[in-house]
Every structure is written in C-alpha cells, then in structure tokens.
Write a structure and sequence with these properties.
With about 325 residues, the protein is α/β, with parallel strands linked by helices. Helices cover about 35% and strands about 15% of the residues. The strands form two sheets. The chain has an eight-stranded parallel beta sheet. A two-stranded antiparallel sheet has the order 1-2.
Amino acid sequence: MSTHLEIAGIPSLPSVGLGLWKIDREQAAQMVISALEVGYRHLDCACDYGNEAEVGEGLHRALESGICQRDEVWVTSKLWNTYHRPEHVRPAIERSLRDLRLDYLDLYLIHFPITLKYVPIESRYPPGWFYEETDGQMQTDRVPIADTWGAMEELHRAGLVKHIGISNFGCSLIRDLLSYATIRPSVLQVESHPYLVQPKLLRYCQSENIGYVAFSPLGAGSYVPLGMAQESESVLTEPTVVRIAQAHSKTPAQVVLRWGIQRGTAVIPKTARVTRLEENLSLYDFELTAAEMLAISQLDKHQRFNDPGVFCEQAFGSFYPIYE
C-alpha cells in the first residue's frame, strides 16, 4: 500500500501526519524534531493552535541538521475565522510563514466555514474566538465563502502555497464551491474515526478527486481533557477493535489508524509523547481484511466530538451550527 494519498492524481500527501493541535508550546519544537527523526514527513499546523513559531523552530533545526529536506516535508496551515475578508487572507498566511520559517506552504485550508469579526494581528495573535477577550462572545461577520476562496486562489498564484483546500465543510458547501472555483480545493480535512465514518462525504470527495484528511482519527482522546468527551467513549476499548488488534499483534490505535488509511484517507493523529510517534507511524506492515474493515466501519455512531453547534454555545455563548 502506498504511504501517500493521491490528490487529483498527484501522489504527494503522506498518509500519516503529526497533528499539532494541543501540543504545548514548550514541547512543540522537540516534538517536531523527534517526529521527523522517526520518519514523519507531514506536519499539520494552524494559526489557532498557537504554536507555529515553536513548530517553525523545530522544523528549522531539523532542516539545518539534515534530518530532512524542505521538499520532503508536507506542511499544512489554516486560515483562521477572523481573517476571511479578502484583504486579510494574505497577511494571515504571511504571519504563518514567518512563524514557520518557510517560503511556502504545501497546503493552506479555510479552517472553518465560520466568519468572525476581524481582529488585527498586531492586537492579538492568535485571535481565538472572541472579538474582545473581556466580553466572552463571538462576533460574526458576513463574508461570502466565494470572496475568501478568491483570495486563497491568489495565494496559490503568488506561489505562497502549493495547494489550497477546506476544513469542516460538508457536501453542499463543497459542491457550491466547485461551481465557481477557478482553482479547485485539493483537500478536505474533517473529523473522521470509526464513530464518525462519514461514508457519503468520503465517496463524494473521492469522486471529485479531493483528498480527504481525517483529524481526530482516534476519536475521543483529545476531547476528554476539554470536557467534550468521556473516557468511556473511546473507540480504542471497543471489543471489535481490541479483537482485531490482538489478531494482528498490533495496538488498538494502530488498527484504527490503519482502518483510516486503508479506506483511502490520510490521518493526522496527535500525540504529546515521543514514544507514541513510532507506533502511530508503523501502519504499513499489516493489512486489515475486508471483513475487519467492515466490522470497524459498523461501529459508526455518527458521533461528532468537534462540533461548533455544541461547543460554541457552551464555551462562547454563541449558537453556531455548521453541519446541519
């Protein structure tokens, strides 16, 4: 099986990446170096994660020491919700490039189909979800996705990014985007794991040659400390997953990640432990049977842990559903 995901016929996106959401700033540089040392060549970053400067430091040190070459590493970042107006798109990517110490990104995504009132970079960065930190409320802005996408296309034409794409979009928004896009989205990144299989969305993306990247591919784990999931909701303790893991002498996490890449998606598991890096990357020396793939897919509960329609109201006092 290829270790890369084909995007519109271009086999360029490593199918396992390191997700950098919730990696503490003091850990991020060394985590990036350690990941590149063991063979990772895909880093998933974002302005909103608040650690791009530290990620950039780690990447710079890895490149300087010869661990890898720049053209071997796929680096993704994301346009935050406060920068959707066309005049704010280029300054946003330029700040990410400066923090990451790069001349270009391999992929830049619209992080959410959510538009918030602009917060100047020099005032607060990353800006988060609030317009004013003291009011604890989201303040939305009215910007058509078409306007934002046009500015994303200009980034591509300027050579600041090789691919542009979207995150947290559904089929209807993608279909609408394709109706006017001059440069098509290369990638969709969405939450995807055995409790949220999303087969129609994956099939649609594959039919349109849009790469599908699964964030939170192990499910609940990243959300338990945030109070957005319970320990009991872990797919890694499912008897089906445990049984299949034992049959292959693998861990439950390796089985779930293998299911992800074997169904044609890239996965970006997050870990803050160096010991887990090699485990999450060791997915290419075994293959799940068709029956095992089906059994894991049948665990689907349509359970979404990262849902703005829930967490925006709980955390920010604003009801903002995007998936319904």
